[in-house]
Amino acid sequence: MKDLPHVIWLKAFDSAARHNSFTAAASELGLTPAAISQQIRHLEQHLDAQLFRRLPRGVSLTDVGQAYAQTIGKSFEDMALATNGLFGKKRTRILRVRASISCAALVIGPRLAAFKAAHPDILVQMTTSVWADRFDDEALDVDIRYGLGNWGEAQIAHLGHEYAVPVCRADYAQSFGENLTIQSLAAGDVVQIIGSETDWGKLSELHHLGLKVTTDWLKADSSLIALQTVSAGQGVTMVLESFARQYLDQGVLIAPVPYRLPKRRSHYLVVNDRAQLKEEVRLFCNWVQSLYQEMTFSEAEHPG
User: Could you tell me where in the chain the CATH 3.40.190.10 domains are found?
Assistant: First the structure.
């Protein structure tokens, strides 16, 4: 086994191979082209192999030089990654988060830039699901789940009580004229969210409204689809106020009647047991909890 070549020779070779030029390598390393040529010559003598062809104008790698350049280049990259990873001041930390498509798109996503600004060294990888009640992917660190909170993980945090409200476009509400009531809305084009079909009936019972939802105009498997559908101009949907908030704040949709339905289920932060000690998990969970507290306060101040 040959002794390893001097690292200075390897550095000169790596730079010259990447640039395909002794002159460019000299500029990158702060040396003269003659010094680069000499170091590569020493390397070739040590290896007993020609790494570059010397041409009338410039140089080019030989076949063995090309193969060696790939290996040496990767070795320098690996050393740089290891050094930065272990000793760098701001090592990038990856945080893997899962939420429903509606929660991710309507609550977390629009506000995630604030978390990134506060923690630029944390790379958030967000994935989505329709329904999730366990960590079927062990790589996940945090789940934002909708339910009753009766799961098996050790660290589960309630994010606050949720309310559902009927929402629609203002022009759709105006199409009822003087006949706009919660009863007329329920008898109109209702976009039902799969899994929440009983909300209209529960709202009716709570407020003694006598609602009769005649037919479902459309069914959607997510609140996001339902909101996008009614924001296009047709129909009404009963949806979580936290999901509808940006549509209401931007004036895209309105809550045309003052009725709200307290939901039995709500959102929870669930931490994978293996990720409990990660600082990035703690920082993200604190941020999400603060976010939901602000949203709850806003909804209490400005319902509907």
Answer: 93-161+265-301, 163-262
